[in-house]
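Page 42, continued from yesterday. The earlier attempt failed because a stray header line got pasted into the input along with the sequence. Redoing it now with the clean sequence only.
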Amino acid sequence: MKVRDDICTINKLESDVLENSDLEVLELTELTEPGKFKVIMLNDDYTPMDFVVMLLKRYFYKQQDEAIEIMLEIHQSGKGLCGIYTKDIAETKIWQVSKHASNEGHPLTCIMEAV
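This time it went through. C-alpha cells are written below.
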C-alpha cells in the first residue's frame, strides 16, 4: 500500500499547488501566414546579360534556361520577377544581389513588392 499512498500524496500536492497558484490563462491567438513579396530585378543599360543570368542562378537558384528567360524579360520589358519570398528572405536576396553587383561595378537594382 506504500506506492498507493505515495501516489495519493502526490495528487494531493499537485491539486494544492494548482489551487493556490496565481496562474494566468493565456488566450491563444490565431497565427497568420507571413506576407509574401516579389523580388523584381530592374533593367539598366550597363549590366551585362551574362552577369544577370549568373546572379539569377546563384541567388535565386534558377536553371540556365529559366535564368535566360527572366534576363530577356528584364531586358525587353524593363523588369523581371526573380521569385516570391517572405519579407526577410526577399530583403536578404536583394541585399546579396546588390552587394555582388556593386562589388563588380554594376548598377543593377532589385526591388520588392507585396504580393
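Notes: The mean pLDDT is 88.
Reminder to self: strip header lines before submitting.
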